[in-house]
């Protein structure tokens, strides 16, 4: 090892002459410029890689998991409603069921093909294994229903139980894995210390350039060293551009989170809960007086949406325990979903605005269906109302939710694209500009060193 004292002595000897001092200063500035390049290039690439993970991996996987949940919920609720019709099920509803199952199965295969994190393997395996089991139970239920065998209802209940308590939770687990990856990537893409590091490195480089120019002015009485002035301008430019790009990228990601990702998850939850309540209504009617468990589940689901069993918003309903109809949402499960959807702002608030109203229209019909089914001799009329007005009003709710979900998905993708575009030029710009600044710095010092040589 070279002794520290020898190094210090060598530096002192070099700095004893003006040319030697200039060479040392130029080396210091080149080091500061290199440090600025490393911080701008490295932090820019880190943020860009995080955005790419969300945009091309975790984000699409999360959307696919939500769509799997939605497709399977549609399939389960639709097949129950078709079963309620008795005999040969309606062709349109059978088509919806088949298309929904096929869509979910394709998405599962696509996600399995792309690999993904280890945490996603178990829920994907569950989905791949249990969806065929579910469809097999549904086919048994259909066959027995066409033959008039009451055992068909038992097969349908078994299929729905498998869906609600095994398959859909697996889809939720898959979405949770991707949501965690999105959160982690968001944290990396918006890390507060990235702009701080760039700012510190840039200010240090600028301070060095300015200090050197002041020193040269005092020693040479030259007001401007044009190459160093140009290098200073380039460093200031790349510093300002990098920080502004980081700010624009952070703003785009914040908009994507607040105006797209969060509303998207809320709408997906509202749609899934609505489909579950609709399916519960069908299963309760199919049970013909033995559907208490389904009615109770429908009440719990409705409360999660923000309404009591009579169709009143929870904040308008009596507090729990004050009347037989009073209810509040389960606080452990979070705030009511539909009010949260309505409160979410952003450019796509309009597609979500009608969701609560559409649910209220459906629930009015659902209340009438339950009341009719409970009356002596009113069962057939209740079934007819469920198959006509109930199906129509819920269809409007589901279409509204699907449109709002699609709008949020598009907004999320657009904001990620904007954030990626904001960062894309940073690494290249920092490299090109700082190479130019380095060349100008060397040229500026060399001019002064050559003057001493000629002297």
From TrEMBL:
Chain ranges passing through the membrane: 21-40, 192-216, 228-248, 423-445
Segments for region (Disordered): 312-332
Claim: Transmembrane is one of the keywords in the record: yes
Domain of life where this protein originates: Bacteria
Keywords linked to the UniProt accession: Membrane, Transmembrane, Transmembrane helix
Ranges annotated as biased composition (Low complexity): 317-332
Protein's name in the database: Putative secreted protein
Organism per entry: Candidatus Protofrankia datiscae
């Amino acid at each position: 090892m070279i002794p520290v004292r020898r190094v210090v002595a060598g530096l002192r000897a070099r700095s004893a002459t003006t040319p030697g001092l200039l060479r040392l200063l130029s080396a210091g500035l080149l080091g500061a410029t290199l440090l600025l390049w490393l911080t701008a290039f490295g932090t820019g690439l880190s943020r860009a890689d995080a955005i790419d993970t969300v945009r091309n991996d975790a984000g699409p996987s999360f959307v696919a998991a939500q769509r799997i949940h939605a497709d399977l919920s549609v399939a389960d609720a639709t097949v129950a409603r078709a079963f309620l019709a008795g005999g040969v099920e309606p062709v349109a509803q059978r088509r919806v069921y088949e298309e929904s199952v096929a869509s979910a199965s394709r998405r599962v295969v696509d996600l399995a093909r792309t690999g993904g994190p280890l945490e996603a393997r178990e829920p994907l395996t569950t989905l791949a294994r249990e969806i065929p089991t579910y469809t097999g139970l549904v086919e048994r239920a259909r066959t027995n229903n066409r033959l008039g065998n009451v055992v068909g209802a038992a097969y349908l209940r078994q299929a729905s139980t498998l869906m609600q308590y095994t398959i859909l939770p697996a889809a939720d687990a898959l979405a949770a894995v991707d949501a965690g990856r999105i959160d982690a990537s968001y944290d990396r893409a918006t890390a507060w210390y990235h702009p701080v590091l760039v700012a510190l490195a840039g200010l240090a480089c600028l301070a060095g350039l300015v200090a050197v120019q002041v020193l040269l002015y005092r020693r040479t009485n030259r007001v401007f060293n044009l190459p160093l002035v140009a290098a200073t301008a380039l460093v200031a430019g790349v510093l300002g551009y990098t920080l502004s790009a980081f700010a624009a990228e952070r703003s785009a990601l914040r908009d994507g989170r607040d105006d797209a990702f969060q509303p998207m998850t809320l709408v997906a939850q509202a749609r899934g809960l609505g489909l579950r309540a609709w399916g519960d209504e069908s299963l309760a009617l199919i049970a013909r007086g033995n559907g208490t468990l389904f009615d109770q589940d429908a009440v719990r689901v409705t409360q999660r949406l923000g309404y009591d069993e009579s169709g009143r918003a929870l904040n308008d309903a009596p507090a729990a325990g004050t009347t037989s109809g009073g209810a509040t949402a389960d606080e452990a499960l979070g705030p009511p979903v539909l009010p949260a959807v309505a409160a979410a702002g952003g450019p796509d608030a309009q597609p979500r605005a009608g969701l609560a109203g559409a649910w209220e229209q459906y629930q009015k019909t659902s209340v009438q269906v339950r009341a009719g089914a409970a009356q002596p001799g009113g069962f057939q009329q209740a079934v007819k109302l469920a198959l006509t007005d109930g199906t129509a009003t819920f269809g409007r709710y589901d279409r509204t939710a699907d449109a709002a979900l699609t709008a949020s998905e598009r907004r999320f993708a657009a904001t990620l694209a904007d954030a990626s575009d904001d960062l894309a030029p940073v690494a290249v710009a920092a490299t090109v500009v700082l190479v130019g600044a380095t060349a100008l710095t060397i040229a500026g010092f060399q001019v002064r060193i050559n003057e001493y040589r000629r002297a």
